[in-house]
């Protein structure tokens, strides 16, 4: 009997184009069968390096444009390994790629670490998670909103101990 968990998921096809500086780099790919994100590579000039000083941020090109189907967005998310090892993350995480955007997908990296972080061409710097979203229409209500147990409590109102504040 095969005990390994099944993680194969049907794939939505999304059109992508490489920009000239993206030629020769692998297309973003899922690093494992069940990986949610497609790893994004830095499309720096061949031999080019980018050094992020501690506290600095920079917009890193991926060399890619994509056409997301209506109703889909893509989120530019940090890689946990870079965050843990170097303190490097995505400043606006999760970055939002709109389905009507046809510009280059870029990654706003930030160095929260204590040392300069060197980025080279092809380095996998972030990941792209494609997701469906809802379009909504806000309808202004003349009446009070439906009441809930939480009410206006927020921003820590349930405390921090293991047993939550509200549940009875
Ligand atoms: O990490 C990111 C975030 C955004 N974008 C691109 C795609 C997105 O569709 C567009 C606009 O992003 P956003 O709405 O977050 O930025 P804004 O400051 O609101 O700009 P705009 O006024 O152009 O919407 O910029 C990226 O390439 N990477
Ligand atoms: Mg916007």
From TrEMBL:
The protein's annotated pathway: Pyrimidine metabolism; dUMP biosynthesis; dUMP from dCTP (dUTP route): step 2/2
GO molecular function: dUTP diphosphatase activity; magnesium ion binding
Coiled-coil ranges from the UniProt annotation: none
Matching CDD domains: trimeric_dUTPase (cd07557)
Catalytic activity: dUTP + H2O = dUMP + diphosphate + H(+)
Domain dUTPase-like: 26-159
Known cofactor(s): Mg(2+)
Residue positions binding substrate: 79-81, 92, 96-98
Single Gene Ontology BP annotation: dUMP biosynthetic process
Keyword Manganese part of the UniProt annotation: no
Keywords noted in UniProt: Hydrolase, Magnesium, Metal-binding, Nucleotide metabolism
EC primary class: hydrolase
Region Disordered, residue ranges: 149-168
Record SUPFAM superfamilies: dUTPase-like
Record-listed E.C. numbers: 3.6.1.23
Residue ranges with Gly residues bias: 151-168
UniProt record similarity statement: Belongs to the dUTPase family.
Function (record text): This enzyme is involved in nucleotide metabolism: it produces dUMP, the immediate precursor of thymidine nucleotides and it decreases the intracellular concentration of dUTP so that uracil cannot be incorporated into DNA.
Name of the protein described by the UniProt record: Deoxyuridine 5'-triphosphate nucleotidohydrolase
Organism: Methylosinus sporium
Gene that encodes the chain: dut
């Amino acid at each position: 009997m095969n005990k390994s968990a099944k993680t194969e998921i049907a794939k939505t096809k999304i059109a992508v184009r490489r920009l000239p500086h993206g030629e020769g780099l692998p297309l973003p790919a899922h690093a494992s069968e069940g990986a949610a994100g497609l790893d994004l590579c830095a499309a720096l000039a061949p031999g080019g390096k980018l050094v992020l000083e501690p506290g600095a941020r920079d917009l890193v090109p991926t060399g890619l444009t994509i056409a997301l189907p209506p109703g889909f967005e893509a989120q530019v998310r940090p890689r946990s390994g870079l965050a843990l090892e170097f303190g490097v993350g995505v400043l606006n995480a999760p970055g939002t790629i709109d389905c009507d955007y046809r510009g280059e997908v870029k990654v706003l990296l930030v160095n929260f670490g204590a040392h300069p972080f060197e980025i080279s061409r092809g380095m996998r710097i972030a990941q792209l998670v494609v997701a469906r979203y809802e379009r909504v229409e806000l309808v202004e209500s003349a009446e009070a909103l439906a009441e809930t147990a939480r009410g206006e409590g927020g921003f820590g109102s349930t405390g921090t101990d293991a047993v939550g504040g509200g549940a009875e």
